[in-house]
Write a structure and sequence with these properties.
Elements: E1 6-12, H1 19-27, E2 34-40, H2 47-58, E3 64-69, H3 76-86, E4 91-96, E5 100-101, H4 105-115, E6 121-129, H5 133-142, H6 153-163, E7 173-175, H7 176-181, H8 195-204, E8 209-220, H9 233-256, H10 258-273, H11 276-293
Parallel strand pairs: 1-2, 1-4, 2-3, 6-8
Antiparallel strand pairs: 4-7, 5-8, 6-7
Helix pairs in contact: 1-2, 6-8, 6-9, 8-9, 9-10, 10-11
């Protein structure tokens, strides 16, 4: 990987308070051959102006430095896709506009990729930071599961579908050329949840996830972040339901049985779409309760 171009893609939205710190962490990378692309999703604050000012004095460090803007807010998945389309490097490091790369992040990942030619996606450990130390300790110790990388692909699918997303998405480093050959992109039908649909799609393509047992990324916890902002809970819940419908259902059905899987499918469709799915789900629930009372089925 020595001297090969790596594209660093910064996805930003209302990141004015943190974006300079993020960009500085990229500027200070020990790996020299970098391309920087910042994609802003129609921020309401002055993120764009801050990035333009920063690029005016720092762009010479990069082989190419570019700022992409949107006329309207399109969501995280679409923002990621815009950044990917502008990238020209073989390998990509994506980072949100409030997280940080440790100085040797890209050098370490590029070195790993050069020594492991079968690698398509590489992850590492990460460290949380922010004011809410109790939340940080809970999430870092209970949500992210690095033993995941020792599992087989079928077991990884089951882990994600039945127990939730446990991958450290901010650390992802991947081969964009190979991803494009497989026609894989971020699913814009699920605008706010870009990572779990991506992982399930990659596993469906038999992509094995590689892991570097070293902290390379700092993950910021804040009240304005998507995952901790209460205003986003309803939208994120809908996107989780859509993820089940589009990606998780076949895996869930394979391991839980047809009746239970169909019941969960209609429940998720009811929550995601409403309308006829709500009528179908409530009718289904009525007859299932009746069948359980009569002792005909015990599926719950």
């Amino acid at each position: 990987m020595e001297n090969k171009l790596v594209s660093v893609l910064v996805v930003a939205y209302n990141s004015s308070a943190t974006i300079v710190e993020t960009l500085d962490s990229i500027y200070g990378q020990t790996y020299s051959e970098l391309e920087l692309i910042v994609s802003d999703d129609c921020s309401k604050d002055n993120t764009v102006e801050i990035v333009r000012d920063w690029l005016a004095t720092h762009s010479q460090r990069f082989r190419k430095a570019e700022l992409l803007t949107a006329e309207k807010n399109t969501g995280i998945a679409a923002n990621f896709n815009r950044a990917e389309r502008a990238a020209t490097g073989e390998w990509v490091k994506i980072i949100a506009g409030d997280d940080l790369l440790l100085p040797d992040c890209i050098e370490t990942m590029a070195d790993y990729a050069g020594r492991n030619t079968d690698a398509v996606y590489v992850f590492s450990r990460m460290r949380g930071f922010g004011q809410d130390t109790k939340l940080i300790d809970y999430v870092m110790n209970n949500i992210f599961d690095y033993s995941f990388f020792k599992l087989s692909i079928p077991e990884q699918q089951k882990r994600l579908v039945f127990y939730g997303n446990c991958l450290p998405a901010p650390t992802a480093f991947y081969n964009l050329r190979k991803i494009k050959k497989m026609n894989i992109s971020y699913d814009e039908r699920i605008p706010l949840l870009e990572d779990l649909p991506r992982w399930l799609n990659l596993l469906n393509h038999n992509i094995r996830f590689h892991f570097i047992d070293k902290e390379l990324v700092l993950y910021r916890f804040s009240e304005t972040s998507l995952s901790t902002n209460a205003n986003n809970k309803k939208r994120l819940s809908r996107d989780m339901n859509l993820t089940f419908l589009y990606y998780s259902y076949p895996i869930y059905r394979k391991y839980s049985g047809r009746l239970k899987a169909w019941n969960k499918y209609t429940a998720n469709a009811h929550l995601a779409f409403g309308g006829i799915w709500t009528i179908l789900y409530r009718t289904e629930q009525f007859f299932l309760r009746l069948l359980r009372i009569l002792g005909i089925v015990d599926d719950k």
